[in-house]
């Protein structure tokens, strides 16, 4: 009665392992789902579906394309994680994103001034 059940340790281990799984699954799903809403990919899929009149085939093609690009991202991400130091990658990523942001803001101001 007072002894801990050996099965409780197994269940504890399973819940520890499944917690990061579901956390990562929910995070990746919600991030990609929200990022894809209303973007050019969704609009292109909408137009192709409307023009072709074959929504199931368009859905299958679009799904395969999204799966392929996601697989490519995962494979490249894994390669980066295994081959580049995290600190260096973080700094380089930050510099690239900052550079892109500055470039886009500059282009926006130039376009605004010219019009």
TrEMBL record:
InterPro entries named in the record: GDT1-like
Transmembrane segments annotated in the record for this chain: 21-37, 57-77, 89-113
Keyword list, A-Z: Membrane, Transmembrane, Transmembrane helix
Location (main, coarse): membrane
Compartments, as annotated in UniProt: Membrane
Keyword Transmembrane helix listed: yes
PANTHER family noted in UniProt: TRANSMEMBRANE PROTEIN 165, TRANSMEMBRANE PROTEIN HTP-1 RELATED
Protein's UniProt name: GDT1 family protein
UniProt organism field: Prochlorococcus marinus (strain NATL2A)
């Amino acid at each position: 009665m007072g002894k801990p059940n050996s099965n409780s340790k197994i269940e504890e281990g399973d819940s520890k392992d499944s917690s990061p799984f579901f956390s990562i699954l929910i995070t990746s799903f919600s991030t990609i789902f929200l990022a894809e809403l209303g973007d050019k990919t969704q609009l292109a899929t909408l137009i192709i579906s409307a023009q072709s009149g074959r929504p199931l085939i368009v859905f299958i093609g679009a799904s395969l394309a999204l799966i392929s690009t996601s697989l490519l991202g995962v494979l490249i991400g894994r390669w980066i994680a295994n081959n580049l130091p995290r600190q260096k990658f973080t700094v380089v990523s930050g510099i690239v994103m900052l550079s892109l942001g500055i470039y886009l803001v500059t282009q926006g101001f130039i376009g605004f001034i010219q019009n």
